[in-house]
Design goal:
Two copies of one chain form a homodimer.
Chain A lengths: L6 H7 L17 H8 L5 H10 E4 L3 E5 L5 E4 L1 H10 L7 H4 L1 E2 L7 E2 L5 E9 L1 H7 L6 H23 L2 E7 L4 E10 L1 E7 L2 H4 L3 H4 L11 E7 L2 E2 L18 E6 L10 H31 L2 H29 L1 H20 L5 H30 L1 H15 L13 H11 L7 H19 L4 H7 L4 H11 L5 H17 L3 H43 L12 E6 L3 E3 L2 E3 L2 E3 H10 L10 H6 L8 E6 L11 E3 L5 E8 L17 E5 H10 L4 H8 L7
Antiparallel strand pairs in A: 1-2, 1-6, 2-3, 3-10, 4-9, 5-9, 6-8, 7-8, 9-10, 10-11, 12-13, 12-18, 14-15, 16-17, 17-20, 18-19, 19-20
Helix pairs in contact in A: 6-7, 7-20, 10-11, 10-13, 10-16, 13-14, 13-16, 13-20, 14-19, 14-20, 16-17, 16-18, 17-20
Amino acid sequence: MKKLLSLIVSCALTAAATADEGMWLLTNPPLKAMKAAYGFEPSREWLLHMQRSCVRFETGGSGSLVSADGLVMTNHHVGSDMIGKLSTKERDLLKDGFHARTRAEELRCPDLELRVLQEIEDVTARVNAAASESKNPAEAGVARRRAIADIESESERITGLKSQVVTLYQGGAYHLYRYKSYTDVRLVFAPEQSIAFFGGDTDNFEFPRFNLDCCFFRIYENGKPLQAEHYLRWSDAGAKEDEMIFIFGHPGSTRRSLTTDHLRFVRDVELPARLGFIWRNEMKLAEFAGKSKENARLAMEDRFGYANSRKAFTGQLTGLQDIRTFGHKYDEEAAFRAKAEASGNNPDESYRAIAQAQEAHAAFYKRKFAIERVTRISQLAQIALHVQRLVDELPKPSSERLPEYSDAALASTYLSLYSPEPIHESLEIQRLTSALAYVAESLGGDDPVTVTLLAGKSPADRAAEAVRATLLRDEAVRKSMVEGGAAELQKSNDPMLAIARALDSESRELLTRYQNEVEAPERMHYAKIAAAKFAIHGDSEYPDATFTLRMTYGKVTGLEDEGRNIPAFTTLGGTFSRFDERKGEDGFELPASWMTARGTLNADVPFNFICTADIIGGNSGSPVVNTKGEVVGLVFDGNIHSLTGAFIYDAAKNRAVAVDSRGMIEALRKCYDAKALIEELMRRPDLTK
Amino acid sequence: MKKLLSLIVSCALTAAATADEGMWLLTNPPLKAMKAAYGFEPSREWLLHMQRSCVRFETGGSGSLVSADGLVMTNHHVGSDMIGKLSTKERDLLKDGFHARTRAEELRCPDLELRVLQEIEDVTARVNAAASESKNPAEAGVARRRAIADIESESERITGLKSQVVTLYQGGAYHLYRYKSYTDVRLVFAPEQSIAFFGGDTDNFEFPRFNLDCCFFRIYENGKPLQAEHYLRWSDAGAKEDEMIFIFGHPGSTRRSLTTDHLRFVRDVELPARLGFIWRNEMKLAEFAGKSKENARLAMEDRFGYANSRKAFTGQLTGLQDIRTFGHKYDEEAAFRAKAEASGNNPDESYRAIAQAQEAHAAFYKRKFAIERVTRISQLAQIALHVQRLVDELPKPSSERLPEYSDAALASTYLSLYSPEPIHESLEIQRLTSALAYVAESLGGDDPVTVTLLAGKSPADRAAEAVRATLLRDEAVRKSMVEGGAAELQKSNDPMLAIARALDSESRELLTRYQNEVEAPERMHYAKIAAAKFAIHGDSEYPDATFTLRMTYGKVTGLEDEGRNIPAFTTLGGTFSRFDERKGEDGFELPASWMTARGTLNADVPFNFICTADIIGGNSGSPVVNTKGEVVGLVFDGNIHSLTGAFIYDAAKNRAVAVDSRGMIEALRKCYDAKALIEELMRRPDLTK
């Protein structure tokens, strides 16, 4: 536990000092602490089985293998991107749900990649050795990036596994992760969005909840269902109050070990810019959706994504604007620095260098953010930029390319670039209009980037023209352009390529500036701080989240919040009470399948529950397992307090929210008559194996 | 007409050169142009009758006297602020409408002031003379502000009329306006919001439309209905296609005569900041409203206001981001400057000075904007600031006070400060939390203003504490604090006063900085440019809008837009077609009164219409009259193109949108059985008068 509490904050946060904090590397589990708190210590084999049963959704989310035939469980909101892509105007799978009653009915996703982690290797020494001769942080940064690209390519060549070097402790360690990658993934079952996301934006990140936020995919290998060596068994009994549970998943990002100067940058520069962008785009999309029912359908996924990010970032900013959070961080930092000072290993210079890096970053953050948004928002602009950059990058040696185009990353880049996923003209025009106008708002109407982007037209006219005229909507054209190389590309007057080119050179310059002035000094000096921390705390520190596999543990328990006692479990019956209470309001509809089953569903079966395990965005879709490694739940959310968890964990308040395995089965049986799926989930493995 | 077209933009804008552009002073109507275009020339008496029949809503909007008994017609969305204040949890007048069938049932508004313009006097010479000895623009600004305060106080003392000096042509002229002021105003009739604002945010600023956006108040004087000498007669026939019409009202603000440097500031600094604030607050209020039905009711007015401003500012920014608008402005400016140069009266120095003023403004615009938002958003913070400032300002001579506290302005300030209007705790906490967090986001968490404002708490805790603990919710306390003076006030530890004080000194500093570095040079140099324009164009220039009475004229006519022909009129029957088309969607509900009357309403009666008259926000509630001065309509909106009208008028596209007088009567009869109201509207005046 790394919490060093001062008197000021001890009332609010005392509980944290003895709590279930930590997103642990599976290679370094806190065995003693677990044993002391719960009397249980996982074995190496148990952890390896968990590791190889877990799945990472490359679209951003977690999941797990739950049958011997490659069945994968995740959240509806993790799968919804694909469910949307598989929908058409006539077949709205988000609204109506989907249920393949036979393998033949399973729907293949256009561009979904799932990964299962096989091996982990510490490559810190090799990465740092590459930078040992460098004259300054920027040069060291270049050397490290090249070493990482080389390590990844080499590993991929030798093992055939997807290889990725993960930067841990902000630069304190580098681990090489090797994954099996699967790209033939098919949709098996999804409930209707109304019950998956019951309570809508209003109840999101709250508890009590009543959400069937699950869906099931199946991995295929060589055209046949994957025969999984490792997968999770289903628990008959579910979890009890106070029972120890584990969550294995891929928390996306935390900033718990940042210096207070760095956090100040996050609070005053980064989060306001991100939220400003989200608020804006939510309103732009609301205007678009208001124009017709079809627009509303098309905009649904984008709107959900923005709403979810808005709540998460709002929670983070609210946390940082609260002096109690910051006060705690100041105290923690001061206590560590005093200890480091006393041990003769004073990292003051590193703190100063990190503060300087924040000032440097603040000088161009908004500009970089705005320019990068265009290709984040617009699918076609993104495609055009990939085409342009592939043509520019491929002739270079792998280690000198932008990371997305290194040999190790190319297959994933191609998967998304050559995807046959539908592109909806009206939504795409909306997105590009909005993005171009955002650049004009952020940089000014006379900025050279704005002027080149707009080419003498209004954002709306420029966007409509580019979306309608581009040939890049056709995957084959993309491929032939990439293969044609620079000479061919120069001949093209495709307006979407012109938009990509208008952004490319400044975008690259700003990336280099970020790498040299911000990332490189941060890596160097966080590594020094991490070394000082290791010297004091040993390896009882966990690294900040990096969207790689972590273990977190805790117990099923309610909480007291603003004077209310919130129990750990809700029930299926509670769903209908909430429905009656908010009847007719946005986000509180129930699908016909549930209204019909209202009389037959067992109202007392647990539906959702909360537990103290320490999670964050990216953990969505993670399995909750008991000490036997059986599935007792499916994480789909954190409560409102967990959002501050990006910076600080408070066991009294932070809760992970999960669908109960029993509620899932009861709903699958009574609302969806999903016999085969239930049978597959409940099937016992061959214990002789 | 001031348009000087270049070839580049002549296609798009040729029509404007021969069009009905202009928001004219009633003291300087374009008689020749009107006569030439429509063969009609209003007499002085006709104009004076119009002037004295028109009403200004001090809350921001227009209206007109429409009966001998002081009946005032305006838009529902102009009156909705008051309709909301007259509502309670049990009596939701916004949702359900209101109809006083007898005078006794009319509801007195808590703090509504209406004004009727009586006299106009040109005081340009006196204002400028006061500044003639000044050594620099800032000093001249101070001298002019003092002269204006003196002129207003003197006029008020002598005439007993509310007196206000209006700055025209950005400083080219100063006119003294004298008003009768009425503060006993009662609500007579309001339809349900769903039909007043049918189509919601989606159809706002669009056409075709189907809105009964009207409501009626009555002015009382000495406890009895005002016996109005001037009021408008109702037209039996309504308006025909191509008929000449006039609109008299109070356009709020246009920026048509700004230099291109100044417009660039508006495009790149002002509008992005304003819109960013609006997007943010719309999302904050949506979160609040989602929590309960009562929250949704409380937030309705704020949400409508933000949504309306969002659409208006978005239209403006979209216009300025379109190179055609800006290209036109460049050409217009270049042509004028060439002519001025040729005539030996080159205003280059003034253009440069105005450009410098924009740079100066950009340096502190966002800071000033953020700090001022707190008292704009939070009713109680606004009240606290008034109390604090009154105590500080009242001991000074009137001409040295902040403008709101000059003798001439005090009565209006007191009306709002001592209003018994309800303050809703939950909404007020939401507003103040949002405002405090906005300051933290904009200035940074460690800025001294943020730190003082938050006093060591989170925005939410600080807001809840201040709203719950302040004594300023009681009007009597406000009064006694103001009367107690500085010594008494210093003793108070009211947290809302602490919030006001935390803002006050920097807010004053930034105001002074604005006056000295921006406003004063702008006034001085726009006056010089205006003089150069007068020298070339004579008095055929109209000044930019200033929320004072203007006349605009044109004809009833449709338009061609993106290949569609949009007819001038919609019908009552069209309302139900639109309802059927969008059934069940947000903003497309119809009230029971209309559903019931569906069979009896004459479907062919005109409901809404468009005309070319040149209007902008503030004109809402203006009467549309024919050449006989009879009411044929009620302006409630502009079409989407009219939003660019803040900078440029295009007769081919800009349209004012009005409720047809015939549709209003048919709906009052069939949906509301409002016999007495109809009889009062249709009553003929005694022609012997």
